[in-house]
Amino acid sequence: AIADLIAEFELDRSLINKPLQALVLVRMQDLQVRDYAMGVIQSERLDFYIELWQSLLQIAPFGFKAGPATILAALYYENCDLENANKSLDKALSENPEYGLAKLLRRVFAAKWPSSSFARMRKELHPKVCEYLFGSTMAS
User: Fold this and answer.
1) Across the chain, what does the average pLDDT equal?
2) Where are the domains positioned within the chain?
3) Alpha carbon of 28 to those of 36, 38, 55, 127: distances in Å?
């Protein structure tokens, strides 16, 4: 579903397929799927992925915002936009104050970790997530 959403968004930078959007939002409740979605992000295309996750977050109903908002926060931080990174974390934590990744990112941002560390962590984590989800290390 994540790959299909990315492919749809690549066509004209819009999300049209409502059932696909709903499927992605439901599946994002699974932390492994959320981590997979983070892993397919390409650092050289941060603007594209920021726009994609902004679009999905805008249509997400309450109860389904924490995952997309947290991914968006990480993207903003990697793009050196701390203000929007923190605003996105605020959205995630206002919906779910115990959302683990959002709480972790809040500490990471406060510690001023290098933004470049996010791409490195994604690269290291993604094969493990793919192995868990698919039984292989598929790239996307």
Assistant:
1) 90
2) 2-134
3) 9, 11, 15, 18
CB-CB contact of 17 with 8 (8 Å): yes
Q: Report residue 133's pLDDT band, with 50, 70 and 90 as the boundaries.
A: low
Q: What is the dihedral of CA 2, 3, 8, 13, to 10 degrees?
A: 80
Which of the pair, 134 or 94, is modelled with greater confidence? 94
pLDDT band at 130 (very low <50, low <70, confident <90, very high): low
Rounded distance, CA 86 to CA 123, Å? 23
Architecture of domain 2-134: Alpha Horseshoe (1.25)
Q: Average pLDDT for residues 3-24, to the nearest whole number?
A: 96
